[in-house]
Design brief:
It is a single chain. The relative contact order is 0.05. It contains 4 helices and no strands. It has 2 domains: about 40 residues, no CATH class; about 30 residues. The protein starts with a helix and ends with a helix.
């Protein structure tokens, strides 16, 4: 890019467009995944429910250890 800039004929705007295209393509799989999730909101809610249940189990175990450690 530096060589192109020094040679002339290619400027900041051209490089900005290239950067945008590269970033857009890099994030394409993530956009596609987001779109798929938005089409299946039931699956999203199930993932959140499942994660919440698992987090509650871990927190319960941790709190049991804390209570035992402080004598409650």
């Amino acid at each position: 890019m530096e060589g192109e800039l020094r040679a002339g004929g290619v400027g900041y705007g051209d490089f900005k467009k290239r950067l945008f295209e590269t970033v857009w393509e890099y994030f394409r799989p993530m956009r596609e995944r987001r779109d798929a999730l938005l089409r299946d909101r039931g699956a999203v809610h199930e993932i959140l429910r499942s994660g919440g249940k698992r987090a509650g189990e871990i927190a319960g175990q941790t709190m049991a250890r804390v209570r035992a450690a402080v004598g409650l």
